[in-house]
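Schema walk-through. Below, the input block comes first and the output block second. Nothing else is stored per chain. Lengths vary across the set, and this one has 307 residues.
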Amino acid sequence: MKLVRTILITLLLLFLLKWGVVSSYYIPYAGMENALYEGDRVLVKKYAYGIQVPFVNTLGHQQLLERPAEYGDIVVFKNPNPQYHKSNIIERASYIGRCVGVPGDTLVLDREQRFSTVLHRDLALAHPYFYPASLDDSLQQVMKAAHIQANKLVGYKEDQYIRCFSNQEIAKIQPQFSSILQPAPLPKDTSAIYTSLIIPQKGEVITMTPQNVSFYAKVILQHEQEAALVKDSVLYINGIQRTSYTFKQNYYWMLSNNAINLHDSRHFGFVPQNHLIGKAFLIWLSKDTTSSLWEGYRWNRFFQIVQ
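--- output ---
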């Protein structure tokens, strides 16, 4: 019976692949452990963020019924690096990462972009807290007992994780974690060590400041298709001085699960909506890349839901 089920699932997957409803993506590196391992092959819903329009994709994945990525989604997307010289987005390398920042969130970056904290719009009254990554399972059990739901990781630094908690939530979990949770030292003067940025949202007006203008100018030049230039900390578009800019599409902040892997937004910045390929949802094959053809299969990972 198990063999019959496996054959039926395989036939269904082949049908979906043939008609382009889903696509298969190979995980070439270990940056997404423990969600995905090097050597995994995953299926990606190509319709998750909109129906892709064929033959008009030179400037990105043109989409009908466009839908935004959500917190926690594991997303396959095209390389958005501003220094990447291929104008045709479709020909660029594909990456995979977890969506930790959505349009309208506030992003706090250190100057070298090795550490990022995302302050979510719906957690505006919450504060980020550090705690040891090794205690994450224990903290999640306490959160579950305290009925704290939909509280996802918002960042990490070295061997520490970061979550945002309101004062009410902290009061519920502090008895068990009073010596563990430490408020993240987000500086008041973000111009000193950190840069504070709003993740652009379609139709949103963002004010240009000396602290953010260079970062946004690259986004406008590469992804908004505008002739943006910065002189003396002032933005010029098509030669006209601008103190603000209205963005034409949504952007996201994507991170890998592995803090030392930089194939994510800490390296190439915001990921535009038109670079999204789809949402990874199922591991259909998993194999140790160092093993021979007939060995190294991780049978327990076959047909597992991506989380």
